[in-house]
Design a protein that fits this description.
By secondary structure, this protein is an alpha/beta fold. The chain has helices at 13-23, 63-79, 108-119, 148-158, 173-183, 226-237, 256-261, 291-303, and strands at 4-8, 30-34, 40-44, 52-56, 84-89, 123-127, 142-145, 163-167, 187-194, 202-207, 214-222, 242-250, 267-271, 285-288, 320-323. β2 and β3 (40-44) form a beta hairpin. The two termini are 39 Å apart. Bound molecules: ribose-5-phosphate. The site of ribose-5-phosphate (R5P) has 15 residues, from β11 and α6.
Length: 324
């Protein structure tokens, strides 16, 4: 088999290092910077001729910059004769623009997939895409992994009785249900929400009984934090004893960290697909690593063994990094 090499841009270097630590190999060398005029500068600093290359780069904020770094890294690796290039995108930015919600809007998630493919990626690894159908936006193989079993395992270690799993919107029901099965909880509640405008949340109704129970909200992304906070208020109003939250991607935009700290939610567990934002340390937000899962997927793809076995079974959680 060709040499395995793992590169990263600047989006989440700690995650890439942790992936490499799990693979027991060093991170490959590349210069990732900016020219004085603001353009992104990339230089691959070791030979990749004939290598099986993985580029770990979540396209989180600043999304445009991180997308560009990923594209330029792929382009330089292709021009340097890498045998195969896999884009490892633990968090896929623009995923919530996967359809037009009104006239004269782009489908940004599709455009970014086109760009990654045209740049020269041979395949991609993604984790808990906001809409699973985004896999089909790529005309290359996509291994769509999930961190839900990792999060479910953490909850199981913590509390098992009187739980009700809550989906904070109709689009997340399959995800919450999956989580529920991993934990082995019978009760599921579903909240219907709407967005009168981008980044604003209005709760419409809830189906399910939560009275006297520990309500566990399961979501893919915490962005502004409004969905979690509004959902928690409703759950407590309807008699829930306490509210916990588990989400894969902790985007924590703007003052989301502060909003969560001041909310009635007891704790929010997220993964490290997106680096912990400064200023959100030391409170209710806990981060767990997905590096072991990504490393195992990379190892299997490199060795040509099945990755589908990773899609469903319970995963051993990575280390709890620290209270975020
Ligand atoms: C929305 O459809 C997603 O599943 C999340 O609920 C949403 O991205 C959370 O956003 P925010 O934290 O801004 O309410």
């Amino acid at each position: 088999m060709n040499d395995l090499k793992v590169f990263t841009g600047s989006a989440n270097r700690p995650l890439a290092l942790e992936v490499c630590r799990n693979l027991r190999m060093p991170l490959a060398q590349a210069l990732v910077g900016t020219f004085r005029n603001g353009e992104t500068r990339i230089k691959i600093e070791e030979s990749v001729r004939g290598a099986d290359v993985f580029v770990v780069q979540p396209t989180c904020a600043a999304a445009d910059h991180h997308v560009m770094e990923l594209l330029l890294m792929i382009d330089s690796l292709r021009r340097a004769s890498a045998a195969r290039i896999t884009a490892v995108i633990p968090y896929y930015g623009y995923a919530r623009q996967e359809k037009k919600t009104t006239g004269r809007e782009p489908i940004s998630a599709k455009l970014v997939a086109n760009l990654i493919t045209i740049a020269g990626a041979d395949r991609a690894i993604a984790l808990d895409l906001h809409a699973p159908a985004i896999q089909g936006f790529f005309d290359i193989p996509v291994d769509h992994l999930t961190a839900i079993p990792i999060l479910a395992e953490l909850l199981k270690q913590r509390v098992r009785n009187d739980l009700v799993v809550v989906s904070p919107d109709s689009g997340g029901v399959a995800r919450a249900n999956d989580f529920r099965h991993h934990v082995g909880v019978p009760a599921l509640a579903i909240i219907a929400k709407q967005r009168p405008e981008p980044d604003l949340v209005e709760i419409v109704e809830m189906v399910g009984d939560v009275a006297g129970m520990t309500a566990v909200i399961v979501d893919d992304i915490v962005a502004t934090g409004s969905t979690l906070v509004e959902a928690a208020d409703l759950l407590l109003e309807r008699g829930a004893a306490r509210v916990l939250a588990y989400a894969v991607h902790g985007e924590l935009a703007g003052n989301a960290g502060q909003l969560i700290e001041e909310s009635k939610i007891e704790s929010v567990v997220v993964t490290d697909t997106i680096p912990v934002r400064p200023g959100t340390r030391g409170g209710k937000i806990v981060t767990v690593s997905v590096a072991p899962l990504l490393a195992e997927a990379i190892r299997r793809i490199h060795e040509g063994s099945s990755v589908s076995a990773l899609f469903r079974p319970p995963q051993k959680p990575g280390a709890i990094l620290e209270r975020a």
